[in-house]
Amino acid sequence: MRRGQRFTTTKLENWTRQGRGTGTLTDYSPWHQVTRSDPSSRGRSQLLQWSHTGRSHHFLSDGESDAFAFISMLPNIVDVREQVPLNLEEHTAQVAAYSAKHQHQTARGTLACAEMLGFKHPVLRSSGETAPWVMTTDFVVTLEAGAGQYELLAISVKPDNDLVVTLDEVDFLRFADHLDTSVFLTSKFRQYLSKGGKRSRESRR
Length: 205
Known about the structure:
The chain is α+β, with helices and mostly antiparallel strands.
């Protein structure tokens, strides 16, 4: 990722045409990538090859690469996708990519979620044009739940001084995909987990 590059509506349209944010395992293409044509991130960008998925994973900060080290040790892990875009419109739930049992399962898009939760959806303004901003989460982990079932764990990694966790933030991520998706927000000192409608908060020293 290079300094001087900027987000534009044309760039986001090109990413969509390129299939960024789609696929699983080896075929997955992150929405934000560590390339010379991508705008720079605030953290230190890194690439890491992982044999489980057979591809390079794109991390935009040391926090993300540290989180991945722990994620990769989770039991029953099927797939790990990073820089995952949240669909703007209603769509087939992401878990359907792993099992035909979920192929008729749909999920709300972020535009509808923002309206339901009373949020102002972020937008991108560029060269006089305005378009809805494509929101992302740092990781979506697919776990095998047994009997041909799979569950998703969305993980957001934040710097310690940015980890202001509210119920609305967690609800937004859960609404943006299937309601059974667990959401885990973490930093070095604090963690916040939402699963199946139950929320727990933990502080560490």
